[in-house]
Amino acid sequence: MEIPESPRDQVLLNGRRLSYLDYGPAAGKPLLALHGHFSEGRSFAALAAELGPEWRVIAPDQRGNGESDRAPDYSREGYVADAVALLDHLGLPSAVVLGHSMGGKNAYHLAARHPGRVRALINVDDPVVITDTGPSGIAFCLDWPQRAPTREALLDGLGPAAPLIADWLRQEPDGSWRLPFVPQDVVDSDLGVRGDHWAAWLGSDCPALLVHGRTSFLVSPELAREMAGRRPRTRRVELDAGHFIPAEDPDGLAGAVREFLETLR
Fold it and tell me: Is residue 86 part of a domain?
């Protein structure tokens, strides 16, 4: 499979850069793809290759990630406002909206708050309830080095998380390497996804697909069945993967998404 090249563009939101990739063609049906923590828009390049040219996958680096600027807050309101601003910037009245993990939560909050902007919803392994409301479960990233003189040194400092972050590291003009995000921002964002989000998940009635990993540490098969059962017009697909489905089973994800999109005809 040939991964498409996509020119990077940006929209300024009160002087803050929101960078995005637009895997055209412009005449394709729009699909807004929202990544999770420790990732960025490029994580959807393979999916864009599978869905094109019928579908135009638009994949932003969400606030504070990749080439997008940091933001004053990492609330659902902020993420949703960014998504609406990007759709407005592109002149798109609505789109299918897909999100993985934290991006999935942003997707169904977007659908609940702006139902006219979301033609259909695809949630990739994001739970409606995270009961641990104490210190962030990903606070371990605060111990990561944010910069190192070489890529290898930075990867060494990331330890077991290196494979998850390796593709997104950035090289600076002086030759050093850095993370594509500030760990404290990720922790702040992660705290915002905790709690009960059933109201947002049930707050829209557009067609929806829930894709979850059989061995996910966030979405158990039992929770996935409840999520699909309680929300009308919702399909459920279980893949032989963990939580990081776009990386662990890209073919399975593309197949499930393609089959669901066919039903929208």
Answer: yes
Rounded Cα distance between 117 and 206, Å, is 10
Number of domains observed in the structure of the chain: 1
* Sheet-wide strand order for 208-213: 8-13, 16-23, 55-60, 29-34, 95-100, 118-124, 208-213, 234-239
Domain of residue 32: give its range: 8-130+195-262
Strand partners, 238: 212
Render pLDDT for 49-97 as a digit per residue (tens, 0 to 9).
999 999 999 999 999 999 999 999 999 999 999 999 999 999 999 999 9
Q: Is residue 163 part of a domain?
A: no
In a domain, 136, yes or no: no
**CATH label of the domain that carries residue 204:** 3.40.50.1820
Q: Taking the alpha carbons of 188, 190, 195, 196 in that order, is the dihedral positive or negative?
A: positive
Over the stretch 210-222, which tens digit does the pLDDT of each residue have? 999 999 999 999 9
The string of DSSP codes covering 71-132 is -S---HHHHHHHHHHHHHHTT-S-EEEEEETHHHHHHHHHHHH-GGGEEEEEEES--SEE--
pTM: 0.96
Within-domain flag for 111 = yes
User: How many angstroms separate the CA atoms of 64 and 82, rounded?
Assistant: 12
Q: Which amino acid is at 254?
A: A
